[in-house]
Amino acid sequence: MIRPLSPIVSSLPNWQRSLAEAIRNPDELLDILSLSDEWRPAARRASQLFPLLATQSFVRRMRPRDPFDPLLRQVLPLAAEQDEVPGFVADPVEDTSFRIAPGVLQKYAHRALLMVTGSCAVHCRYCFRRHYPYGEEPKRLADWEPAFESLVADTSIDEVILSGGDPLMLTDQRLAAIVERIASIPHIKRLRIHSRLPVVLPNRVTPELMGLLTNTRLTPIMVVHANHAAEIVTDAAEVLRTLVQSGVVTLNQAVLLKGINDSFSAQRDLCLSLANLGVLPYYLHQLDRVAGAAHFEVSPTVGIAIINELRASLPGYAVPTYVQEIPDRASKTPVVNWRVN
Fold this sequence. Notes:
The chain contains 13 helices and ten strands. The chain is of the alpha/beta class. The chain has a ten-stranded mixed beta sheet.
């Protein structure tokens, strides 16, 4: 189903037009995929708590008439999101405890993270920041100056991470202004961008964006997010290869998700698909225990068994590090302390 574009939307750049066409209504998503009406009531209710958002590009990679498609399960609101489960909380990684200035988080030595936007192109139902108070962060570029000054003052910081939300939701002009300001700080050497857009909204990777990434004095590192091999096909695969061939270090982080990628075969296919494009599997995350996502949790013993199988069958560079984020630790914590039965 293709919806007519308004004159305003028609005048937007291609990626912004694609974003405007994204699916926000559960009924529309279910209609497009020819799914049973039984899914509608729960999807409508759960989307009131955390809105549905999925790009047309991402939806086109889903299998019609399959409610258990691994891409669909990442974005379809379910009744289980309304369950209150002990241990699943609003801020599972204690982000707000590490806020050193408006818009700035610092959890690890020599790195600082900027929460440059609260917007995304897809709402992943397991998102560990689905409850984050984005409204408290700076909005206008001038409002970011205290954050930049905090980076200037700490000469131990040599890498800045742009996150959110998704930093590539910013326009090229806004993103360029932020990158230029960061590049003006002499002790910062590397710029890391955490983004799902090259996967879910591939036409966001414009010539202007590539120029921004490759012409700054900072070493650019792109960390993308794909959880299943079916995500990195067609236009998404082309964009990832473009990033790699342009000299941008490109890594992938995935989350271990029940019913989506919690098998050796799913993880093997994902790792090989990435490696074939020149993208290195970086992290496989144990699920952050955010409220509303308990139904996605996989036992760490399962994750360890999968990683052991991957090590036995893939080259080392194609095997991600299986990690968990634990507040107050000096780094991500490798998941190695559970016995595999």
